Amino acid sequence: MKAILIDDEELALKYLEHQLLMLGDFEIAGKYTDPLQGKQMVEETDIDIVFLDIHIPELNGIELAEMLLEHKPSLQVVFVTAYDEYAIKAFELNALDYVLKPVHPHRLSLTVQRLNSHLKAGIAASLTAQSKSWKFLMFDEFRIYEGMQERAPLQWRTAKAQEIFFYLLHHRGKVVSKATLIELLWADFDLNRAYSQLYTAVYHIRRMLEPFSRDRILLQNTADGYLLKLEGIYLDVDEFDRFVKAGMELSKDTVSEYERILKLFKSEYLEGYDYVWAELERQRFQLQWIRLKQNLVHWYVKSEDLEQAFKHIEHICTRYPLEEQAQLLYLKICDRMGFHFLVQRQYALLETIMEAELSEKPNQEIVKWYKDWEKKRQKG
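Structure for Response regulator receiver protein, as requested:
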């Protein structure tokens, strides 16, 4: 295995090189006290692993690891440190391994075992990622499908790393500035500490994305921020958006496609993730779904298929009980179908919900319609 060593202490570099060569598993491609020179060599050389001191001047070791992984996602990183607190952080980052100074041969042999296992798993995962189709589902809780098989949920070590990933995914294809991310998650932190936290989180995200082929998903570090690119990955929200923008007219030939698209909206956008920044997108998708669903209801009513119209309007009212236009349409359809008991029950339910949630009564249009309906019933 080819390795590059980066440490600001010359003596530490020589000692680590000696220990690695004693194991017989490594070819040392270079060792550097200057992290920028080391970075350049890593980017220009075909190597398997970097042994990197976390506590180096000029450049935070975790920040450097994050930069290296942008160019070489399959690169393995072993952090070297004299400080236990950094070793603990390395495990929290999901780093391959860490070693404490002074480096002992037995500890390095364990690192080699972990490296071999990780490389074999990485090769298999990369081949799988390239050969199978991938789906990211963002309606309801975030889910990933590999072919037809749902993958286990991503196991985030920190809530902030998870939120950054979703924020970048939310803004996929666009540069998100580092200042924006810091303002979002570390507004009260000292700036140096905030940037350190950001680099740590992005490093972890890169590790989490390892199972994906770089041709499919790429997290790019720009001068000012980060850019998440997806290629050949299906997103349910993108398909829903494309359908809305296409403005397809409802007909006998298109109604099945309308129903299929509406089923994509299984639940709210990123359901279960309480992110304020996602709220506008949730509302946008919600309103679009309601509008499409009501269009479908009106089409079924016009086609005299009241059973289908009832099924869809009931779905809207169950999901969004405060949607008054849908509630009025529900009452009218129930009346046409002769479900008079449902008209009475639904109106009473609406009054109760409106009072409990908004301390209001149903709007005047609904109240007037119901009163007129009651009068007709009494006369009839």
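The radius of gyration is 29 Å.
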